[in-house]
Amino acid sequence: MRLLIIGRLSGELVTASRIAMSRGAAVTQADGIEQGLNALRAKGADLVMVDVALPIRSLVTALSDERIRTPVVACGTGTDAKAAVAAIQAGAKEYIPLPPDPELIAAVLEAVTADARSFVWRDPAMERVVKLAEQVARSDASVLITGESGTGKEVLARYLHTRSNRVQKPFVSVNCAAIPDALLESELFGHEKGAFTGAVARRIGRFEEANGGTLLLDEISEMDVRLQAKLLRALQERVIDRVGGTQPVKVDIRVLATSNRNLAEEARKGTFREDLLYRLNVVNLRLPPLRDRPSDILELAGHFARKYAEANGVPPRPLSAEARRLVMQSPWPGNVRELENTLHRAVLLASGPEIDADAIRSPEGDALAVAASPVARAVQAAEAATRGFVGRSLAEVERDLILDTLDHCLGNRTHAAKILGISIRTLRNKLNEYTDSGIPVAEPGHTRALAAYG
Questions:
Q1: How many Å apart are CA 386 and CA 374, to the nearest integer?
Q2: The whole model's pTM is what?
Q3: How far apart are CA 410 and CA 414, in angstroms?
Q4: Second label for 360, Cα 20 to 30 Å away, from 189, 265, 337, 379?
Q5: Which residue in 25, 43, 407 sits closest to 206, CA to CA?
Q6: What is the DSSP secondary structure assignment for residue 77, as one 8-state letter?
Q7: How far apart are alpha carbons 324 and 446 in whole angstroms?
Q8: How many Cβ atoms from other residues are within 10 Å of residue 166's Cβ?
Q9: pLDDT at residue 238 is higher than 60
Q10: 191 forms bridges with which residues in the sheet?
Q11: pLDDT tens digits along 46-101
């Protein structure tokens, strides 16, 4: 936890600083707004406490202009209501009266550092993912976390960090999809003063901010392929170049990345560098969609019901039997994120001693969709597969079946032959035919997309 205090250190601020340090925070002090901005540009921070007498609005505006997302808390002597209201209206997240109450300071620090996105699971499918995550957590190996949108990829990344040797160091997350391509390079690597219009001072990027800790590149598949080359160099050599800089900067970080796309397919299409995929994909943690983790659904539903009851100041209510049945039958195309939003809504709509099925509704107020029965889904899948064969030769269908099975087995010929029900010799002859025709064939330990790595 890194705390920046802006304001001349009166006795009350000295006390606040000491309380924060006793709670494990690393405290930096700046006398004024400009000095505070320089400290943020140079070191970063998880929280800013600023004297209410200083121009808070100009601080918040400057942070917004420079895309520094550190929350600001105002503090002032006494309980001046007008000062508190003005500070909140200026953009401060909270107001702390001075002299400080130790429990209040602790609560603010805990609110900033606590991860509200609790990691909850019960299903065996998730248990396997978590077990692998715990096995690799203490290493410095890069990890690629994949899965559909809303499955909890960032939550798993934070879980990895909390169980790593870097847990006492920063966890910094960058959403590559939310930042325009023209700004992402500066966001990641920082910039020197005057490097581009609006670069009013030197600023460190997320790589330097995460130094010693963990950097999460969220939705990395959205990164422009030209920037991927610079990222690859940073991962390989552990040095970065600020935009407009002339001297390389060494960094010590562990990189995690997430994607809701198939990066092997993106590499085949040329929108994602294969060498970067190989560098990131030392370990792949694939999060199954919620529909494939049925034992997690009720566990998560109960967790969210309790969480949002507490957040909204209402009594905690259990789900009724009918509500549990409805929750279990929904297909949850938006995965855990959709389930969370639905339970938040249900907590607000429920009126009786239980959360009934009437409270389980879509954002528009409609009844929740119910998935088709397993038999119906099987019929639909069979029909879709059959339609995919129409208009294709038997040889083409056989080739795709063999190559897809080999991909599934990560190039293991013996395993693939056993699944296909053919001899290893027949399989090898077929693969030799495909190779001679210029068709990629997975090497042992790889899929076709990664076969080039050897």
A1: 18
A2: 0.65
A3: 11
A4: 379
A5: 43
A6: E
A7: 42
A8: 21
A9: yes
A10: 203, 243
A11: 889 898 889 999 999 988 887 787 889 888 876 667 888 888 888 888 888 877 67
